[in-house]
Design a protein that fits this description.
globular; disordered N terminus; 20 strands; single chain; two-stranded antiparallel sheet
Length: 513
């Protein structure tokens, strides 16, 4: 009996000691979990005349803020519901002013205090322009262009915010002290270019996403990559493109995208050639409002999406005889071949009805291709064909073939090359009654009033001296050729349709902080 009690006591004692040891171990402090570091940031390719921007994205290929998409992680975070409706960037055609950014902020972790959402850059460029007035009688000049820019990017779980803004001033030495033949049209000797470009994306729920884009620019240089701005310098003008959109997923495969866009183009009373040109330029001031409705369905898998699209556009000119209503009916396909490669295509027709009676039916085609490859490379290509609002006085509308290519490639860890090329061919049709350059016939007439070819090729090389300093060297070749049925150079002049070629080159230094 005593042996049994001794054995039981020993077992209880051992269990008690084991419990105490476990309790002590349970009180030991676990080693702290290290915070996930933020991937290294990549500096964006500088825009001529601006400072280098540091876009806070992971270390994969990252385009400039004006590029069509942003490469992040292992591929391109292409947003569902985006369409090839907005033009690609205008970096090559405007020193210091990018086009509206459709880039999206990447999903960067905010757990580290090392992340700073604000980047400020200062730069100065020295260059030579062989035709800084963009006239047939070319006049050359050396120039200096200081610039300051700001980039604020705050990615978040539900709300993402990006603001990109800046201002540059271009001083042409040959324009000083000359009476009326200064830097731009008329007495304008220097350029002031300012812009603000912001995007806000809010995920209301897993089904609903809201997006607002605001872009405004005050600029002087012609923009040959889009249908905004004269094809030669006629003085500063104001342009804003703003939109509000909603994407809603009705089911795992079916979703809709609804967007309301407004655009204002105001040339003020700028004139480079006297009274006739003043009337012609001011008559092109306009307000455009477009309601866009897309119906999208994923066929075989997500990213293999068929699209039905309808757009309704109203255009109000200062010259009210050119006011119009336009209906777009399109079908298309959005295809993601891989996380790095995406293609979009749209095809259909437009019906444009004019205030001065008459209408015109035009085929419409839109296509885009985006690829993020090795060596931090990014390729963006877009082509469109269809009707556009007139950008020449006395013309009711124009049918345009437009194509643009943007390519960035990292030659080494410090050297990046950028190539941007734009081309468009315009067929101007239908003159407004009694207007300059018009046919004097009805607005809806199908007779042609001439054509125009415009082009712009820009090549830039950037060298990162350090994390804050960068040096770049660039050259740009642009021009415009017009064919007017009237056969009169004076008619082309009054419409702001001037033949010219232009070569600009510069070297620059940028400091980022």
């Amino acid at each position: 009996m005593l042996g049994k009690h001794s054995l039981a006591s020993a077992i209880v004692a051992a269990a008690f000691l084991s419990f105490q040891a476990g309790g002590v171990r349970g009180q030991e402090e676990e080693p702290p979990v290290e915070a996930t570091p933020i991937p290294g940031t990549v500096e964006a390719t500088p825009i001529p005349g601006t400072a280098v921007e540091a876009t806070p994205t992971p270390a994969e290929a990252t385009p400039t803020p004006a590029t069509a998409v942003e490469a992040a992680g292992s591929g391109i975070p292409i947003e569902a519901g985006t369409t090839p409706g907005s033009p690609i960037s205008t970096t090559a055609t405007q020193a210091g002013v990018p086009g509206p950014a459709s880039a999206r902020a990447s999903g960067i972790s905010l757990r580290s205090t090392a992340y700073v959402p604000l980047t400020i850059s200062l730069s100065v460029h020295e260059g030579f322009d062989d035709n800084f007035r963009t006239m047939q009688a070319a006049r050359s000049s050396w120039y200096t262009s200081p610039a300051v820019s700001l980039l604020y990017s705050l990615p978040g779980t539900a709300t993402q915010v990006k603001v990109h803004s800046g201002v540059s001033f271009t001083y042409y030495y040959a324009g000083q002290g000359s009476g009326g033949g200064g830097g731009g049209g008329g007495g304008q000797r220097n350029d002031i270019n300012a812009y603000v470009d912001s995007t806000i994306i809010h995920e209301v729920s897993p089904r609903l996403k809201l997006e607002a884009d605001i872009y405004a620019a005050y600029r002087a240089e012609p923009d040959l990559s889009s249908n905004v701005g004269l094809q030669n310098r006629q003085g500063n003008f104001f342009n804003t493109r703003d939109s509000l959109g909603a994407t809603y997923h009705w089911s795992p495969r079916f979703f809709t995208v609804t967007t309301d866009k407004i655009q204002i183009v105001d040339y003020g009373n700028n004139s480079g050639q006297g009274g006739a040109s003043l009337q012609a330029v001011a008559s092109q001031n306009r307000i455009e409002n477009t309601i866009d409705q897309e119906f999208k369905y994923d066929l075989l898998h997500k990213g293999n999406t068929v699209v039905l699209e309808y757009r309704f556009e109203t255009t109000d000119y200062q010259d009210s005889s050119r006011n119009s209503l336009t209906n777009f009916a399109l079908v298309g396909l959005d295809q993601e071949f891989s996380p790095r490669l995406k293609a979009d295509i749209r095809a259909g027709a437009t019906i444009r009805s004019f205030a001065s009676d008459g209408s015109r039916v035009t085929p419409q085609f839109e296509g885009s291709l985006i690829y993020a490859g090795a060596h931090n490379s990014l390729l963006s290509w877009r082509t469109t064909y269809g009707t556009e609002n007139a950008s020449v006085a006395g013309i009711s509308s124009q049918t345009t073939f437009r194509t643009g290519l943007e390519f960035k490639y990292g030659l080494t860890a410090r050297i990046t090359a950028t190539l941007d090329a734009y081309y468009h061919h315009d067929d101007n049709q239908g003159g407004t009654p009694g207007s300059l350059g018009g046919t004097g016939g009805p607005t809806g007439a199908t007779g042609s009033n001439g054509s125009r070819d415009s082009y712009d090729v820009f090549l830039d090389g950037q060298y990162k001296i350090s994390s804050r300093w960068a040096f770049d060297l660039n050259i740009e070749y642009s021009g415009s050729t017009n064919s007017n049925t009237a056969g009169s150079s004076a008619s082309n002049l009054s419409n702001g349709a001037i033949d010219y070629t232009r070569i600009r080159s510069s070297v620059g230094l940028t400091y980022k902080f």
